[in-house]
Structure formats: structure tokens, C-alpha cells
Amino acid sequence: MMPVRSRTCDVEHQGVELAHLALGMDAAGRRDQLIVGAVVRQFGFDERGRVVNDVVSALGADNAHHGQQDGAVMVAGRAWAWRADNTVSVVNDVLAGVARFDVDVLGRVTGVTRDKKQHCGTKLVPLLL
């Protein structure tokens, strides 16, 4: 998702550019993108404003300065699934695999099941229950 509003700047020291910085915000005013040099971090939200995706990608050399995301390679990422009571039920991590949470009626975690073999691979999408 392209940011609705963004702010960019270049960090320089003695005339040498050290990094290109950009911040993006969505229509709801939430920070949904952070770019530092060739690293892009993007956040996705559901209709209730909860974070459902957090993805870190590395841009190719041709795209790094302009924040273009064609050819970006995912480095790390997570997707969250939420219960109706705002309790996290599943976390799908590209590097660590899937964690499912058992909770009691008050929303307190009573157990965690991890499956390091099951993960989203290189494509991260929100989890649906």
C-alpha cells in the first residue's frame, strides 16, 4: 500500500549522503511505512486498527534511493490473527514459524503451540481464522 502522506529527507555528513529516510502514513494517520536507505518496513492494519502485518524488505540498488519497491526482497515479517476480543490468537513469523495461543475467558494466555516448520515462506498475508 502506498502511503497517503509521506515525509522524506536525506541524512548527510560533510556533503556525503549517509541515508535516505522516508515515513509514510495511511488515510487513518497511522504510520504504515518507514524507509531507511535500502530497508523498507511496512505495516498493515485491519478495519479495527490492529496491526496484522509487519514486513521488512531490502530494496535492490536501483530502487533504494527512491523508495520504489519493485524488486524488494522480504527479509523478515510477521502476520497476526486476532480474536474478536482483541486477543492475539496466531502469530505467523517468516523466520520463527507459527505460534498459536490458547487463552482463557479473560484473554490470558494459557498455552502456546509452535510449529517452526509451518510458516508463510516469502509471501506474508494476514491470517484468517
Describe the fold and architecture.
With 129 residues, the chain is an all-beta fold. 0% of the residues lie in helices and 54% in strands. The chain has strands at 5-13, 16-25, 31-36, 39-45, 51-58, 73-82, 88-93, 97-103, 109-115. Strands 1-2-3-4-5-6-7-8-9 form a nine-stranded antiparallel beta sheet, with no helix packed on it. The radius of gyration is 17 Å and the shape is elongated.
From the spread of the alpha carbons, the general shape counts as elongated
| Strands ordered across the widest β-sheet | 1-2-3-4-5-6-7-8-9
Mean pLDDT over all positions: 80
Enumerate the spans where pLDDT stays under 50 for 5 or more consecutive residues. 125-129
The rounded Rg comes to 17 Å
End-to-end separation: 23 Å
Key traits:
129 residues, mainly beta, nine-stranded antiparallel sheet, elongated
List the helices and strands and how they pair.
Blueprint (H helix, E strand, L loop, with lengths): L4 E9 L2 E10 L5 E6 L2 E7 L5 E8 L14 E10 L5 E6 L3 E7 L5 E7 L14
Question: Nutshell version of this structure?
Answer:
This protein has no helices and 9 strands.
